[in-house]
Design goal:
CATH superfamily of the largest domain: Zn peptidases
Largest sheet: 8 strands, mixed
Structural class: alpha/beta
Shape: elongated
Helix content: 25-40%
Distance between the termini: 30 Å
CATH topology of the largest domain: Aminopeptidase
Radius of gyration: 23 Å
Strand order of the largest sheet: 8-9-11-10-14-18-15-16
Bound molecules: ligand BES, manganese (II) ion, zinc ion
CATH class of the largest domain: Alpha Beta
């Protein structure tokens, strides 16, 4: 999506459509748009449009308005607003517009809306508009191309860099979505590694890939034990953005990248198992974030680590009861081979900790329990440092992604002890699934390194179509990570 700026008023923008956000029946437009507001208000009066979150409608424009159409998009009531709804409204407007054959859009460069700052507004609208053009067409015989569209921000813009960032973030999200939406047969760890390598080259990141032999040499018993039931070998992928402050301690982002999770010998039930192609989405969010960070040329060094493996029940597969050794030496009794994400992450986190980072943040579709707790409305965040957790929650609110905290009590750590090894990958109690998983991960991060874990199992994938997106990967987490990292120095 091409994003531009034009000082001419919205009513004079000769585009296919002008987009207007509504909070209920209230048009959010700068005050010098009286004619446009009058026309739009007239149009919605006789329609079903109520300005609810997710609602969009298209109307013909006439009279003094240069654009052909008016697209109205709802944000819902003020008391339920969060930034994600604005990004989704922009996406829904463009999605509805492109579906109707429209290609060029105009929107106000700022709106009268207490809830949001101008720069955040521009970032969310620009990035949302780009997301609204996306569709996953890789396997459709009738080739539908992602719509070539443009959006102009009408009015004064003091800082163009925000709109540039929105444009480059849109590009990163769209190209990563094409990888994230691939099924397991076409996205084995090897393919993810190749994709990461090409992306790194294009964006000036360095890229290091460990295959099976190197992982054996390093003693990464976790990721290897997950991969050993599969014909596809594991890869550990390490991307690095050097940043201008080369001597500064890096931030490390870690992503669970299970290219398909069958459960292994602890096989999952058949119903809905196809969804488990999405189990790579932690890694996908890290890839998207790394690309955004590279394009924005962030000052701080940032390292992205993807633990990529396929969890299958082949004859070499890990058996329940097997005891394995993680990178760094801790032993783990694998009581359930479906709790594989933590096994991949324990190696990746231990490697991350060796990089003397200022912080480690991991993203993972780790537990079904987080869906019980929060559904698809927020991701859970846990960690060993309240300050980091709070900062990420705040960045999430700015970036339109909701994170909700859960505790890591010592009880949960105790619950992950094994009778026969240092740790078990399954809690004894069976309760607090999301937090006991995090307690397990915490054992692989030294206490003095700030670490946060974000469980995106409920938010990484849209199961049924919404006005702002077709079913598939959301890349949840990428926006928050980028937002937070852009604020570090
Ligand atoms: N990838 C899954 C998490 C998951 C489960 C996401 C269901 C969406 C729906 C993860 O590897 C997993 O299987 N976790 C188990 C852990 C359990 C065996 C301790 C779970 O949550 O059921
Ligand atoms: Mn699993
Ligand atoms: Zn999994």
């Amino acid at each position: 999506m091409k994003l531009t700026v034009s000082p001419a008023p919205l009513a004079e923008q000769k585009k296919d459509a002008v987009i207007i956000f509504y909070q209920g029946k209230n048009a959010l437009l700068p005050s010098d748009n009286a004619a446009l507001k009058k026309l739009a208000d007239e149009r919605i009066k006789t329609s079903a449009f109520k300005g609810e979150a997710g609602q969009v409608a298209l109307f013909p424009a006439t009279g003094d308005i240069a654009a052909k159409q008016i697209i109205v998009a709802g944000l819902g009531e003020q008391k339920h607003f969060y930034n994600g709804l604005l990004e989704q409204a922009a996406a829904a407007a463009v999605k509805a517009g492109t579906a109707a054959g429209l290609k060029s859009f105009a929107v106000a460069s700022a709106i009268e809306f207490d809830e949001i700052e101008e720069a955040d507004y521009q970032l969310l609208v620009g990035r949302g508009a780009a997301w609204g053009t996306y569709s996953f067409n890789t396997y459709k015989s009738e080739t539908k191309k992602t719509a070539e569209a443009s959006l102009v921000f009408s009015g004064t813009v003091t800082d163009r860099s925000v709109i540039n960032a929105a444009e480059s973030q849109g590009i990163a999200l769209l190209n990563t979505a094409d990888l994230a939406n691939l099924p397991g047969n076409d996205a084995p760890p090897e393919k993810i590694a190749e994709w990461a390598k090409a992306m790194a080259k294009e964006n000036g990141l360095s890229c290091q890939i460990f295959g099976k032999t190197q992982l054996e040499k390093k003693g990464c018993g976790g990721i290897l034990s997950v991969a050993q039931g599969s014909a596809q070998d594991a890869r550990m992928i390490i991307l690095k953005h050097a940043g201008k402050n080369k001597s500064a301690q890096p931030i490390v982002l870690v992503g669970k990248t299970i290219t398909f999770d069958s459960g292994g010998i602890s096989l999952k039930p058949g119903k809905g198992m196809g969804w488990m192609k999405y189990d790579k989405c932690g890694g996908m969010a890290v890839l998207a974030a790394m690309q955004m960070i590279a394009k924005m040329d962030v000052d701080v060094p940032v390292i992205g680590i993807l633990g990529a493996a396929e969890n299958m029940p082949g004859s070499q597969a890990t058996r329940p009861g097997d005891i394995i050794k993680s990178y760094g030496g801790k032993t783990v009794e694998v009581l359930n081979t479906d709790a594989e994400g933590r096994l991949v992450l324990m190696d990746a986190l231990a490697i991350a900790a060796e990089m003397k980072p200022r912080a480690i943040i991991d993203l993972a579709t780790l537990t079904g329990a987080v869906i019980v707790a929060l559904g698809s409305s927020a991701a859970a965040i846990l960690g060993n440092n309240q300050n980091l957790v709070n900062e990420l929650i705040d960045s999430g609110l700015d970036a339109g992604e909701r994170l909700w905290p859960l505790p890591i009590f010592k009880d949960f750590t105790d619950d992950m002890k094994s009778d026969f090894a240092d740790l078990s990958n399954l809690s004894k109690s069976g309760g607090a699934g999301t937090a006991t998983a995090a307690a397990f991960l915490q054992e692989f991060v030294p206490e003095n390194i700030p670490w946060a874990h974000i469980d995106i199992a409920g938010t990484a994938w849209l199961e049924s179509a919404k006005p702002h997106q077709a079913p598939g990967a959301t890349l949840f987490g990428a926006r928050t990570l980028t937002q937070w990292i852009a604020q570090q120095d």
